[in-house]
C-alpha cells in the first residue's frame, strides 16, 4: 500500500466505523420525569431541516456537480439550482398540506386522498422504482470514490456501502435518527467548505487566474448558461429545470421526513431552512468545478466525477494536501452512506408492506423479518445493477430519478392537493402515462450510449414532455370520470388547507 | 369430456342453487350497512334477480328507498300503501292502479322486513299476477333481507358499545386518585406553596384532558403529556418510592393514537410496580415508558418491575373479562384492533414475580385514522 492511499483509507474506515457504531448502539437519550413536557422536545424545524439536507445531499451533489461544471460549463449549474429550487415548489405548494394529510409515505397520501387500494399499489411500485434508480448512482459513486481514494476495483465501493447499510438496518438502526442525519449535513458541508477555503487561498496566491480562459475545446461556451447546444441545449435546460423543480416532492426519503414535523406550519419552516442550507452547500461544488478548469483540465475528458477527490492533492502538496484529501473522501463516503440508508429504508418499508410481508401459502414473515427481507431486496438489486452497468454519469442517473418522480408523483401531489376533481381513475391514468413515458426514457438511456440527435435528447431528458403528458392524462381522465370523485374529497381538502390552530370539525 | 364437465359442475339443479347463492352473496354486503337509500340502491338489483320479477322495491316505514325494474310510476302509490301498513301486518297483495294498459305491474306483493320484532320496512314485488309461488319467494327473500339487516344492527351496536366504553374510560379516573392527589397537594400547601400551586395546575390540566369530549384520536405527544402529569401527581404522593424512566424518540411524537390508549396501561403499571415495592430491599418501584421509531410504525412499551401477573389472567382480561382488575387492558386492546386491524393488538409479556411489559404498536398512517 503506497502512502497515497493512507488518508483516503483512514477516512473511509473512520466514517464506516462511526456509522456502524451509531447504527448499532443508537443515540440513547435517556430521560427521567424530572425533564418535563415531551411535546416540547419534538423535533425542531432547524434540526429536521439539517436532517433532510443530510439525507438529500447525495453523491450527485457532492461529486457529480463539480465534475459536470468542469466538463460542460455553466449550464450545468441548473442542476444545483433545480435541486434547491425543488424545495421552493415544495414549500409553496406541498409541504404544509402534505403534513396535514397525516400521510407518512406517498402511497399513504394517495390512499387517503383517493380511497383506492389500486392507486396505492401503483404508488408503491413507483416508490420502489424511483428508490432503486436513485440508489444506483450512490453505489456507482461509492465505487468511484474508493477507486480514486485507495485504488480499489470499482465493485468494492457498492459492496462496502451495501454491506454497511444492510448491517445498519438489520441491527435495529431502522430509521436513522434525525440527529445523526443532521450531523451528516454538517459533516458534508465541512468536508467541502474547509478544503475549498484552502484551495481558494492557493488560487489567490497564484495570482487568481481566470478559469474561463482555459485550454480545451468549447472554452468560449464554458461560462455561458445555455452552452453550445442550440435548440437541443435549450430543450435540455428546460427539461432539466422541470425535472428538478418538480421532482423533489416525489422523492420517497425526503417526504417521510416531513412527518416528523408537529404541524403544517413547522413543515413550512423546515422547508425554508432546508432552502437556506442547500443554498449554502451548493455554492461550493461550482468552486471546485471552476478551479478544476485551471488546475485539473485533463480530468474533464477522463471521468470528471472524481474531480472533488483529486483536486486538493493536485493543488496542495505535502501533508496538508493529504489531510484535505482525507476530508473530502470522508465527506463523499458519508454522502453515500446517509443517502443510501435513507433510501433503502424508504424502499424496504414499502417492500415489507406490499411484498415480503404478504402471506405466501401458509408462511408469513413477522414485521421485523419482513422489513429485513425488504431491506436486502432494496439494497441488493441496485448494488448488482451498479456493478453490472458501471459507466452512466452519476448526476445523469440522479437526473433521471428526478424525471420519473416529477412525471408521476408531482402531478399526483399537485392535483391531489389543489384540485377537488381528481379521481382514482384519473390518477391511475396519469401515473401510467408519466411512469411509462419516463420509464421508457430511463431504460433507453441506461442501455444506449447515443447522446446526440433529437431522439437521444428527448429520451435522455424526458421531463419536459412526460410531466405535461401525465398532468393532462390525470386531468382529462378525471373529467371523464367526474362521477367517481371520492365522497370525502371536499372534507379532505378542508383538512389539507386549514391551519391546525383553526377550530373546526375535521 | 362433456359428460365429465357436466358432473364436475353439478346437475342443472345444483347450478341453479349456486347461481342463487351467488346472487344472494352479491346483495349481502350492501344490506350489512343497514337500510338506507344507498344500500337499497345497490342491493335491489340482485334481489330482483333472485325473484325474477319485472319490478321490485325496498321501502322503509315511510317511503320508497329504491325501485328497480319497470313501473316507476307506482312509487307514490306504493309509498302510500307502506305508510299505512300496521305493525305486525302479514305479507299482503294489493292491486296496482294503473291507467297504462301495457304496464307489466298489475299486482304488488308487499312483504314486511322485521328486525328484532320491529317493522323497519318492506320488500315490494311488482308482477302481472301475484301467484302463490311468487308470494312464497317474496316471503323468503324478505326473511333473508331481515336477517342481514339484523346483522347490520348488531354491527352498529358493537360500535356503539365501543364508544360507550371510551366514555366510561374517560369517566374512570379513579376517585381514589382524585382524593389521594388532592391530599398530597394539601400536604405541600404550607411547606412548599409554589409546588402545591404547580401540582394543582397539573391536576387541572390532567382532568381537562381526560374529560375531553371530542375526537377519538390524539397525538402521541398529547397522550404522553397527560401521562407525565399523572406521574407527576403520583410522585408527589409516593416520593422516592416511584422511579420513572422515559425514553421517547422525538420522531414519533406526531403519530395519531387512540385517545387514552397509553394512560390506562401506565396506571396499571404504577399500581403493580408499587404493590410489589414493599417486598423489595430498596422499596422502590421502577417504571419505564419507551417510544421507538420503527419506520412505518411506532412502538410504545410500558414496563414495570412489579409482581407480574399470571399470563392466563392477562389473557382473560384481554378477552374482555370485566371481573379482572385490569379493566383498561381489554378496552385498549379492543380499540387498537378496531382502529388498525387484528395485527395491532396489545402484546403483554409477564410472569409472576417477573414484572410486566405491555407493548403497543401503532402504524404512522392508517386509513380513517385522523385527529
Automatic annotation (TrEMBL), chain A:
<dbReference type="GO" id="GO:0015293">
    <property type="term" value="F:symporter activity"/>
</dbReference>
<feature type="transmembrane region" description="Helical">
    <location>
        <begin position="426"/>
        <end position="447"/>
    </location>
</feature>
<dbReference type="InterPro" id="IPR038377">
    <property type="entry name" value="Na/Glc_symporter_sf"/>
</dbReference>
<feature type="transmembrane region" description="Helical">
    <location>
        <begin position="400"/>
        <end position="419"/>
    </location>
</feature>
<feature type="transmembrane region" description="Helical">
    <location>
        <begin position="155"/>
        <end position="173"/>
    </location>
</feature>
<protein>
    <submittedName>
        <fullName>Cation acetate symporter</fullName>
    </submittedName>
</protein>
<dbReference type="GO" id="GO:0005886">
    <property type="term" value="C:plasma membrane"/>
</dbReference>
<comment type="similarity">
    <text>Belongs to the sodium:solute symporter (SSF) (TC 2.A.21) family.</text>
</comment>
<feature type="transmembrane region" description="Helical">
    <location>
        <begin position="47"/>
        <end position="70"/>
    </location>
</feature>
<feature type="transmembrane region" description="Helical">
    <location>
        <begin position="370"/>
        <end position="388"/>
    </location>
</feature>
<feature type="transmembrane region" description="Helical">
    <location>
        <begin position="323"/>
        <end position="350"/>
    </location>
</feature>
<dbReference type="GO" id="GO:0006847">
    <property type="term" value="P:plasma membrane acetate transport"/>
</dbReference>
<feature type="transmembrane region" description="Helical">
    <location>
        <begin position="118"/>
        <end position="135"/>
    </location>
</feature>
<keyword id="KW-0769">Symport</keyword>
<feature type="transmembrane region" description="Helical">
    <location>
        <begin position="6"/>
        <end position="27"/>
    </location>
</feature>
<keyword id="KW-1133">Transmembrane helix</keyword>
<keyword id="KW-0813">Transport</keyword>
<dbReference type="InterPro" id="IPR050277">
    <property type="entry name" value="Sodium:Solute_Symporter"/>
</dbReference>
<feature type="transmembrane region" description="Helical">
    <location>
        <begin position="453"/>
        <end position="477"/>
    </location>
</feature>
<keyword id="KW-1003">Cell membrane</keyword>
<feature type="transmembrane region" description="Helical">
    <location>
        <begin position="235"/>
        <end position="259"/>
    </location>
</feature>
<keyword id="KW-0472">Membrane</keyword>
TrEMBL record, chain B:
<dbReference type="Pfam" id="PF02518">
    <property type="entry name" value="HATPase_c"/>
</dbReference>
<dbReference type="InterPro" id="IPR010559">
    <property type="entry name" value="Sig_transdc_His_kin_internal"/>
</dbReference>
<dbReference type="InterPro" id="IPR036890">
    <property type="entry name" value="HATPase_C_sf"/>
</dbReference>
<dbReference type="GO" id="GO:0016020">
    <property type="term" value="C:membrane"/>
</dbReference>
<dbReference type="GO" id="GO:0000155">
    <property type="term" value="F:phosphorelay sensor kinase activity"/>
</dbReference>
<keyword id="KW-0418">Kinase</keyword>
<dbReference type="Pfam" id="PF06580">
    <property type="entry name" value="His_kinase"/>
</dbReference>
<dbReference type="InterPro" id="IPR050640">
    <property type="entry name" value="Bact_2-comp_sensor_kinase"/>
</dbReference>
<feature type="domain" description="Histidine kinase/HSP90-like ATPase">
    <location>
        <begin position="257"/>
        <end position="366"/>
    </location>
</feature>
<protein>
    <submittedName>
        <fullName>Sensor histidine kinase</fullName>
    </submittedName>
</protein>
<dbReference type="InterPro" id="IPR003594">
    <property type="entry name" value="HATPase_dom"/>
</dbReference>
<keyword id="KW-0808">Transferase</keyword>
Amino acid at each position: 500500500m503506497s502512502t497515497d492511499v493512507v488518508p483516503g483509507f483512514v477516512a473511509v474506515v473512520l466514517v464506516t466505523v462511526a456509522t456502524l457504531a451509531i447504527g448499532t448502539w443508537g443515540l440513547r437519550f435517556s430521560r427521567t420525569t424530572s425533564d418535563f413536557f415531551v411535546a416540547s422536545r419534538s423535533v425542531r424545524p432547524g434540526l429536521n431541516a439539517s436532517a433532510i439536507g443530510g439525507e438529500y445531499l447525495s453523491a450527485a451533489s457532492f461529486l457529480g456537480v463539480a465534475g459536470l461544471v468542469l466538463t460542460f460549463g455553466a449550464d450545468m449549474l441548473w442542476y444545483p439550482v433545480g435541486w434547491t429550487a425543488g424545495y421552493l415548489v415544495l414549500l409553496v405548494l406541498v409541504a404544509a398540506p402534505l403534513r396535514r394529510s397525516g400521510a407518512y409515505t406517498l402511497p399513504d397520501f394517495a390512499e387517503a386522498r383517493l380511497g383506492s387500494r389500486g392507486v396505492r399499489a401503483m404508488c408503491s411500485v413507483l416508490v420502489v422504482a424511483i428508490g432503486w434508480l436513485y440508489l444506483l448512482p450512490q453505489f456507482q459513486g461509492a465505487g468511484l470514490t474508493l477507486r480514486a481514494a485507495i485504488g480499489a476495483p470499482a465493485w468494492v465501493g457498492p459492496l462496502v456501502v451495501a454491506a454497511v447499510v444492510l448491517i445498519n438496518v438489520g441491527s435495529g438502526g431502522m430509521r436513522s435518527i434525525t440527529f445523526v442525519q443532521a450531523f451528516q449535513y454538517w459533516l458534508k458541508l465541512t468536508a467541502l467548505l474547509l478544503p475549498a477555503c484552502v484551495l481558494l487561498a492557493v488560487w489567490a496566491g497564484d495570482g487568481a487566474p481566470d478559469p474561463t480562459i482555459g485550454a480545451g475545446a468549447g472554452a468560449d461556451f464554458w461560462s455561458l448558461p445555455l452552452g453550445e447546444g442550440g435548440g437541443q441545449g435549450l430543450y435540455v435546460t428546460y427539461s432539466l429545470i422541470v425535472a428538478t423543480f418538480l421532482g423533489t416532492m416525489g422523492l420517497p426519503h425526503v417526504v417521510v421526513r416531513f412527518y416528523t414535523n408537529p404541524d403544517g406550519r413547522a413543515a413550512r419552516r423546515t422547508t425554508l431552512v432546508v432552502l437556506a442550507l442547500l443554498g449554502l452547500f451548493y455554492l461550493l461544488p461550482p468552486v471546485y468545478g471552476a478551479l478544476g478548469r485551471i488546475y485539473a483540465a485533463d480530468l474533464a475528458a477522463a471521468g470528471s466525477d472524481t474531480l472533488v477527490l483529486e483536486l486538493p492533492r493536485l493543488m496542495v502538496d505535502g501533508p496538508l494536501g493529504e489531510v484535505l484529501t482525507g476530508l473530502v473522501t470522508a465527506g463523499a463516503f458519508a454522502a453515500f452512506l446517509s443517502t443510501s440508508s435513507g433510501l433503502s429504508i424508504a424502499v424496504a418499508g414499502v417492500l415489507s408492506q406490499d411484498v415480503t410481508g404478504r402471506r405466501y401459502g401458509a408462511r408469513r414473515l413477522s414485521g421485523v423479518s419482513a422489513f429485513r427481507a425488504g431491506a436486502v431486496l432494496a439494497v441488493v438489486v441496485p448494488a448488482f445493477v451498479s456493478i453490472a452497468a458501471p459507466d452512466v454519469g452519476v448526476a445523469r442517473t440522479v437526473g433521471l430519478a428526478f424525471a420519473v418522480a416529477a412525471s408521476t408523483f408531482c402531478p399526483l401531489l399537485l392535483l391531489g392537493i389543489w384540485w377537488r376533481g381528481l379521481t382514482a381513475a384519473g390518477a391511475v391514468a396519469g401515473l401510467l402515462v408519466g411512469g411509462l413515458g419516463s420509464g421508457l426514457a430511463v431504460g433507453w438511456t441506461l442501455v444506449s450510449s447515443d447522446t446526440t440527435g433529437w431522439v437521444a435528447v428527448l429520451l435522455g431528458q424526458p421531463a419536459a414532455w412526460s410531466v405535461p403528458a401525465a398532468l393532462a392524462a390525470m386531468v382529462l381522465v378525471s373529467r371523464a370520470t367526474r362521477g367517481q370523485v371520492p365522497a370525502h374529497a371536499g372534507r379532505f381538502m378542508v383538512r389539507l388547507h386549514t391551519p391546525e390552530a383553526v377550530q373546526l370539525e375535521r | 369430456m362433456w359428460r365429465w364437465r357436466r358432473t364436475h359442475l353439478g346437475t342443472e339443479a345444483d347450478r341453479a342453487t349456486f347461481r342463487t347463492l351467488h346472487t344472494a352473496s352479491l346483495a349481502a354486503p350492501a344490506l350489512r350497512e343497514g337500510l338506507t337509500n344507498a344500500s337499497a340502491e345497490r342491493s335491489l338489483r340482485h334481489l330482483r334477480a333472485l325473484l325474477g320479477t319485472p319490478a321490485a322495491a325496498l321501502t322503509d316505514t315511510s317511503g320508497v328507498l329504491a325501485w328497480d325494474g319497470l313501473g316507476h310510476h307506482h312509487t307514490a302509490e306504493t309509498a302510500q300503501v307502506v305508510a299505512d301498513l300496521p305493525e305486525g301486518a302479514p305479507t299482503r297483495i294489493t292491486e296496482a292502479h294503473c291507467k297504462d294498459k301495457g304496464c307489466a305491474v298489475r299486482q304488488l306483493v308487499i312483504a314486511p322486513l322485521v328486525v328484532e320484532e320491529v317493522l323497519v320496512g318492506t320488500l315490494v314485488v311488482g308482477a302481472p299476477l301475484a301467484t302463490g309461488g311468487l308470494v312464497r319467494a317474496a316471503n323468503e327473500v324478505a326473511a333473508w333481507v331481515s336477517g342481514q339487516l339484523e346483522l347490520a344492527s348488531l354491527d352498529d351496536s358493537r360500535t356503539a358499545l365501543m364508544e360507550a366504553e371510551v366514555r366510561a374510560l374517560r369517566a374512570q379516573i379513579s376517585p381514589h386518585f382524585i382524593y389521594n392527589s388532592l391530599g398530597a397537594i394539601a400536604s405541600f400547601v404550607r411547606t412548599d406553596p409554589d409546588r402545591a400551586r404547580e401540582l394543582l395546575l397539573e391536576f387541572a390540566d390532567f382532568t381537562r384532558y381526560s374529560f375531553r369530549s371530542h375526537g377519538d384520536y390524539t397525538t402521541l405527544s398529547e397522550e404522553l403529556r397527560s401521562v407525565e402529569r399523572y406521574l407527576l401527581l403520583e410522585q408527589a404522593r409516593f416520593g422516592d418510592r416511584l422511579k420513572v424512566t422515559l425514553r421517547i424518540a422525538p420522531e414519533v411524537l406526531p403519530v395519531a393514537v387512540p385517545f387514552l390508549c397509553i394512560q390506562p396501561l401506565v396506571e396499571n403499571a404504577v399500581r403493580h410496580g408499587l404493590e410489589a415495592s414493599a417486598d423489595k430491599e430498596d422499596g422502590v418501584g421502577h417504571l419505564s415508558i419507551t417510544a421507538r421509531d420503527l419506520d412505518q410504525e411506532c412502538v410504545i412499551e410500558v414496563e414495570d418491575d412489579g409482581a407480574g401477573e399470571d399470563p392466563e389472567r392477562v389473557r382473560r382480561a384481554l378477552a374482555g373479562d370485566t371481573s379482572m382488575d385490569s379493566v383498561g387492558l381489554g378496552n385498549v386492546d379492543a380499540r387498537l384492533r378496531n382502529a388498525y386491524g387484528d395485527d395491532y393488538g396489545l402484546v403483554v409479556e409477564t410472569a409472576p414475580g417477573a414484572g410486566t411489559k405491555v407493548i403497543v404498536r401503532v402504524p404512522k398512517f392508517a386509513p380513517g385514522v385522523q385527529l
